[in-house]
Write a structure and sequence with these properties.
about 350 residues, about 15% strand, Aspartate Aminotransferase, domain 2, alpha/beta, Aspartate Aminotransferase, domain 1, 7-stranded mixed sheet
């Protein structure tokens, strides 16, 4: 199968080979060295401020989102402002409500970028934290990091960035943006199997972890940080995936770091969009503030659900379906993971053949 989903994504051979081996025992000096090196590498790739820390949560990205909400925000002291422009922004909103964190939401029309006026409406308010999915994966939109940074610095807001789909796909500098927390995930641009979600915390976030009562045992950020000092975790981690992440982080460093990987993702995304634009296919790409990680496409007069099913059954190609109201009218194509440009050529050729076969008729 040729996989154009946005997670899990195609892995390179070295990462896949690690997954085929027996999982080793992990309470060892050797595993601790791997964990400590992985922390150093991801801090470098994120351009994290001095004295930042990283931990590796055995969970999905949503688990890491919840850990951060629980572990850095105080229901008695904090009031959050959250960007809700799609299903993942809404997830942050739901987590805030679940854990009793007072909050307001900037509700954006799906597919719309974040604008100055959206933020200015909350200037001078009583908010203490700002939560955003920098890349709203469900809509293929990348929000303006500089705009968010300026607002949060002006308002002195604790900034939590979900970079699950955008980290290593789009430009990101944690220190420059003033982000206090970066949430990532193994199965996106890191191109490893799902199951581990790295979290990077700035010194200001670390201070909050020390101050906030940690309400959960498994997702206790303080306990994770304490154990990571010696390269370990408080509970059994997804050992095999952590080994794969370590290999992938080493590869990224050797290939030129975050800038080189972002440039590669950009080239894959731009190549796909050019091919679609030149093909004459009855598809409309959403290119207002697009992420390098994914392209959102609307179908013109035919069923997106039928196309997604046909691509899988006829050509062995996975596209990324949309849910809810958009299931019949839109889908997404991912550009993260091991995708040479020839994959784009195969995909567009298959789409053209599907059109010839009548799959794109009303």
């Amino acid at each position: 199968m040729l996989n154009f989903a946005v997670g899990p994504v195609p892995q390179n051979n070295n990462v896949s080979a690690i997954g085929g081996r027996d999982v080793p025992y992990f309470r060892t000096p050797e595993f601790s060295r791997i964990m400590l090196e992985s922390e150093r590498l991801i801090l470098e790739l994120a351009f994290a401020p001095k004295d930042s820390r990283a931990i590796f949560s055995t969970s999905s990205g949503t688990g890491a989102m919840e850990a951060v909400v629980m572990g850095t925000l105080d229901p008695r002291r904090d009031k959050a402002l959250v960007v809700d422009g799609g299903s993942f922004g809404r997830r942050f909103r739901e987590l805030l409500a679940l854990h009793g964190i007072p909050h307001d939401a900037i509700e954006l029309e799906h597919g719309a970028p974040l604008r100055v006026e959206d933020l200015d409406a909350y200037s001078g308010g009583d908010h203490t934290a700002f939560l955003v999915n920098l890349g709203e994966t469900s809509q293929g939109v990348l929000y303006d990091a500089n705009l968010i940074a300026d607002f949060c610095k002006r308002e002195d807001l604790f900034l939590v960035v979900d970079g699950i789909s955008s980290f290593l796909a789009d430009p990101f500098d944690m220190g420059e943006m003033g982000a206090d927390v970066l949430i990532t995930d193994a199965q996106k641009a890191l191109a490893c199997p799902p199951g581990v979600a790295p979290i990077v915390l700035s010194p200001r976030a670390l201070e909050r972890v020390r101050r906030v009562v940690q309400p959960c045992s498994y997702f206790n950020l303080g306990l994770m940080l304490e154990n990571q000092l010696r390269g370990q975790t408080p509970f059994t981690p997804a050992v095999g995936i952590i080994l794969q992440i370590h290999e992938r982080l080493r590869q990224l460093q050797e290939a030129g770091g975050a800038a080189a990987e972002v440039a590669l993702r950009a080239s894959v995304a731009e190549d796909f969009r050019r091919r679609v634009s030149e093909s004459g296919l009855p598809l409309e790409m959403r290119l207002t503030s697009p992420s390098n990680a994914v392209t959102f496409l609307k179908t013109i007069g035919f069923s997106a659900r039928r196309l997604v099913d046909d691509m899988k059954e006829t050509y062995g190609i996975w596209l990324c379906p949309n849910g809810g109201e958009g299931a019949e009218t839109s889908f997404r194509v991912g550009h993260i993971g091991e995708h040479p440009l020839s994959d784009n050529a195969l995909l567009v050729a298959a789409l053209l053949d599907a059109q010839r076969r009548g799959i794109m008729r009303p």
